[in-house]
Amino acid sequence: MQSSNRILDDMAKVASGAVSAVTGLKGDAEGMLRRQVEKLMCDMDLITREEFDAVKAMAAKARMEQEKLETRVAELEAQLTAPGQDTTKPAARKKPAAK
Predict the structure, then answer these.
(1) What's the whole-model pTM score?
(2) What DSSP assignment string belongs to 6-17?
(3) Cα 79 from Cα 76, distance rounded (Å)
(4) Pick from 99, 5, 78, 36: which is nearest to 91 by CA?
(5) What sign results for the dihedral spanned by CA atoms 57, 63, 69, 75?
(6) What's the confidence (pLDDT) of residue 85?
(7) Cα–Cα distance for residue pair 76/39, rounded to 1 Å
(8) First-residue to last-residue Cα distance in the chain
(9) pLDDT per 10-residue tile (average), the chain, 99 residues
(10) Per the count of CB atoms within 10 A, which of 2, 29, 86, 92 is most buried?
(11) Backbone torsions φ then ψ of 31, nearest 5 degrees
């Protein structure tokens, strides 16, 4: 009976050692994979998050300005085609306000 306990203990030690070896291999594999991915990303011409956010903000600002200009053009067109206004003559220009 004593010999079977010794065999089971030895098998448990071997299994424990195998599990720790596999865990170590897993960590090494993850590290190598991470390095390879980082190398590939460096080789690609990718932008940083900060650059992306800056361009996104510029695009949002440009869109807002475009919408303002579209509204202003629509208002000016409405003034040009207002009823009772002679469309054969160009509209009188307003003088810029004095500063």
Answers:
(1) 0.44
(2) HHHHHHHHHHHH
(3) 5
(4) 78
(5) negative
(6) 60
(7) 56
(8) 107
(9) 74 85 87 92 88 97 98 94 64 58
(10) 29
(11) -65, -45
Residue 51 is encoded by which pair of tokens?
């650059």
Token duo for residue 49: 């998050």
Cα–Cα dist 55/61, whole Å:
10
How far apart are the C-alpha atoms of 30 and 51, rounded to whole Å? 29
| DSSP track, the chain | -HHHHHHHHHHHHHHHHHHHHHHHHHHHHHHHHHHHHHHHHHHTTPPPHHHHHHHHHHHHHHHHHHHHHHHHHHHHHHHHT-TTS-SSSPPPPPPPPP-
Cα–Cα dist 64/4, whole Å: 81
Q: Which two tokens stand for residue 40?
A: 């590939």
Residue 81's nearest CA partner among 72, 91, 71 is 91
